[in-house]
Structures are given as structure tokens and as C-alpha cells.
Design a protein that fits this description.
With 169 residues, the protein is mainly α. Helices cover 61% and strands 4% of the residues. A two-stranded antiparallel sheet has the order 1-2. The chain contains eight helices and two strands, in the order H-H-H-H-E-E-H-H-H-H.
């Protein structure tokens, strides 16, 4: 997929310039949804199946995801590439902007706040964990819960306090 110009911003926008691509990446990274059905039913925004299928193809063609081979009747699993893992700082920046300038549900905002509080070190740990999950890199030892476990615990605590909205299925 050749970009329309040599501008790096244009090249990135051509891959990520629609809301669905970023939300699919969000769900793969933070929700560990790696199969079509999980991505389809787990999206609180209610992505349509044809849009999801199109975005997955585009993200694979752009080298952001890989699609595992699946035998007939089996589900294909999507994995992040290193380029896909490197989208985390972009999602982080967008999330920080959203924390500052937009409202949202407490249980989803708490994860972004945890990442913000953890700063660059948290992002690096999270990218290392994603490499272990998606690229079969050797997992790094954690002194306590992993970054994804901390994000899930923050969400669960917000849900337990009655702050969570029920996701649509």
C-alpha cells in the first residue's frame, strides 16, 4: 500500500485515518481480543462485521497485524507486529487528549489514568508484555502484577465501585 505522498503524517493517516482502525487496535491491545468474533462482539462502539473485516485486512496489509493460518472451521488469530506494538504511544497520546478534553465512562477512563500516572516506564513495560504475547518474545519478570493485569484490576475496581457501564454484546 503506497501512500499518496512522501509525507510521514500522510502515510500514517492513510493507515490509521478512520476511527475503526484505532479502535480495533485498542481492543487487540487492551482487551486481548484476537479473534474476529471477539472483536465484533466486544466493541462497545458496535462495529459492523463488514467494517471489521475490511479494517483487519487493511491492518494486515499495512504490516500492523498478522493473521494466523486457520484450518477449515477454525478461527484465525490476529497478532500485533512490532509496528503494531509501536502504535501504543499513539493510542496513549490520543487517550490523554481524551482524558483532558472529552468526557467518558469512569471504568474506561481509569485505565488511561493509570497509564498516564505510570508514564513512559509503564508504556515500555506494556510494550514488552505485548511483545511476549504477540511476538513470542521472552517475557520480562515483573515485581508484582504485569501492566495488563494492572489495567484489568483498575477496570475491575471501577466496575466494583458501581462506576462501570455494561458493555454491549
Amino acid at each position: 500500500m503506497e501512500p499518496r505522498s512522501g509525507c510521514p503524517i500522510n502515510a500514517a493517516v492513510e493507515v490509521f485515518g478512520d476511527r475503526w482502525s484505532m479502535l480495533v487496535l485498542r481492543d487487540i491491545i487492551f482487551g486481548d481480543r484476537r479473534f474476529f468474533r471477539a472483536l465484533l462482539t466486544g466493541s462497545p462502539e458496535g462495529i459492523a462485521s463488514n467494517i471489521l473485516a475490511d479494517r483487519l485486512v487493511r491492518l494486515v496489509e499495512a504490516g500492523i497485524l498478522t493473521r494466523g493460518t486457520a484450518a477449515r472451521g477454525q478461527r484465525a488469530r490476529y497478532s500485533l507486529t512490532e509496528a503494531g506494538i509501536q502504535t501504543l504511544p499513539i493510542l496513549y497520546a490520543l487517550g490523554n487528549w481524551g482524558l483532558d478534553w472529552r468526557s467518558g465512562s469512569p471504568e474506561l477512563r481509569v485505565r488511561q489514568q493509570l497509564m498516564r500516572d505510570g508514564g513512559p516506564a509503564f508504556l515500555e513495560e506494556l510494550m514488552d508484555e505485548l511483545r511476549a504475547r504477540h511476538l513470542d518474545a521472552k517475557p520480562k519478570p515483573y515485581d508484582g502484577p504485569s501492566p495488563l493485569e494492572r489495567l484489568d484490576a483498575a477496570y475491575a475496581a471501577a466496575a466494583e465501585n458501581g462506576e462501570a457501564e455494561q458493555p454491549s454484546s
